[in-house]
Amino acid sequence: MHYLDHAATTPVPQEVAQAMAGVLTNAFGNPSAQYTLGRQAKALVEDSRAVTAKALGCKPEQICFTSCGTEGDNWAIHAALHQNRRVGKHIVTTATEHSAVMQCVKQLEQAGYPVTWLKPDANGRITAQQAVDALREDTALVSIMLVNNETGVRYPVEEIAALLKGRPTLLHTDAVQGFMKVPFTAASLGADYITVSAHKIGGPKGIGALYIGGKAKNTKPMLYGGGQESGLRPGTEPTAQIAGFAKAIELRLERLEEIQRHMAACKTYALERLQTIPGLRVIGAGDAPHILSVSLPGYPSQNIVSELSEKEIYISAGSACHRGKISHVLRAMGLDKKTAAGTVRVSFGPETELSDIDALYDALLAHKTTRFPML
Fold it and tell me: Is 3.40.640.10 the CATH classification of the domain at 14-253?
């Protein structure tokens, strides 16, 4: 098997699975229970919170566990708008956000919230000046992702945060694709809300975290119930997932720079090999070390993905050519239809080997040689 879709999800290391199994079978108490088994579970949750905070360079009390990145994004957006309800309703975001942000904001737009959608250049980049130029007196929220999940482009969140100083406008960043892939801390980013997720870094699905800091005050809970997570995110804590998240973070932290260098080296090697395929185009000016977007114009990405999967080579239809529709990211970049429809995303992780990339190269070259392009 040649797994090259780490931006979609990641393999779970044995150590993570063992940590979760230990909780499920031994430390299974309810963290809200007052007896020993419950207190042990509560201690596990708080230890895991400290590990997560260490990775983000913040205080443990600034971390709330969530079920996923989507929940964190939606919660941050609604919480920011509630806090700034007397400032106004205006939202600034990009036309290239993950659907967790985009669909949430679109619903708000339909409900009467004015939205400015920042468009990228042909390389997928957004500038800090674009965001600042879009600000109004009634701008309540700026939501800008850290790393684009399709192109790997890193957005200037730090610059935007600096330019928002002195304003009541709150800043949220979806850092799901950037967490432990590109260097940053909560302080260096300067965002008020930061969303992260476990399954992008070798952790289990079903668990994420939201950093709440900066100008974010008296955050409105998304749910109401038993008062868990300091009353902000009630519901019995999923201790096994939380433990798995923390173990995944610990494993990455042990050799973080080495892993980042390895992913960058894989990307460089992939670029060198794939660019020798006649007609192949590199899409976007991706900065993240783990994402590479390329296109074989005229060769539909869904066909490529399906054919490669039969050879146990797993990549993503980076164009998200879903039911014949071109990705909103590539559409915003202004790509022509053939190029956008032929775009695939290749993404790397600690487990990636150069032989995986060699297999991809051989398969893409064979596909182009044996298949006629669609006119």
Answer: yes
